[in-house]
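User: Please look over both lines:
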Amino acid sequence: MSTHEPGEAGPDRSGDQAPIITVVGATATGKSDLALDLAEHLGGEIINTDSMQFYRGMDIGTAKLPVEERRGIPHHLIDILDVTAEANVQDFQARARTAIADIRDRGHRPILVGGSGLYVRAAVDHMEFPGTDPDLRARLEAEAAADRWSLHQRLRELDPTAAEKITVNDQRRIARALEVIELTGRAFSAQLPDYQEIEPTIHLGLSMDRPVLHERIAARVELMWDHGWVDEVRSLLEVGLAEGRTASRAIGYAQIRRHLDGELSAAEAKEETIVRTRQFARRQDTWFRRDPRIHWIDGCAADAERNRARALDILAGPTDRMET
């Protein structure tokens, strides 16, 4: 049970500047529940680092917690963009750091939760982001759409390290990497520095065996569909979802659009969404596993009390980074 009311400051061991907490991991591993438990126990406020939850109206398909399920705990950086807007990590960085400072001013604990790895790092690490050139970006994205293999090969020649990390199907990141190289004259991979935090931070990661996670993803997609995901997409199309460069490509939303256009049956749209989500979860896990700072918690048991106890043990002091 919580020892503090939601939003009430708890007994932070390091005083007003107790470390920031991040809760990361692949989709469907239980990050939101763990973050809520920690916020209740420690007097925290939550900052969203899931880039798809920035969008107003994208609720069901992003597993966005309804307000009534947030236990009275303030949540920040949710519903900050229209679906026609493009998510921008540089803008997010400024917003997230302002939110961290404001939470500190209220005497509460900042808890960042989400699976968008670059956004997590942007919030808590020393990172600078090169500007953008809309014309150059548009040209590169058009080239990627026409022949992604050729553009990926160009990236491999200019920055082999980046090419190893960016798949040939990730056309937007290929274009962005080449844009940065052309604008700065430096390798895109050089823009991701070593893991150096702006202030003390404790990183918690939830992991699951792949078969367990695959089952959870499939069950969640079915539940989202039953809860009105198709109707949600219909409503968003009326306010410009199809024109949104980021939102329109979100997993599930893109498949449901194709279903509504008659390209996929309902069963085919569900199956493709499940497959794409599993692939995305694998990429998330790969990203986070590279970060040596993360303390991993085995979430396979889906036991909220156990996960919270393990997390609080980690927050209380030094421990092994991997639970076995």
In short: Residues 1-15, 319-324 have pLDDT under 50 and may be disordered. Residues 15-127+194-316 form a domain with the Rossmann fold fold (CATH 3.40.50.300).
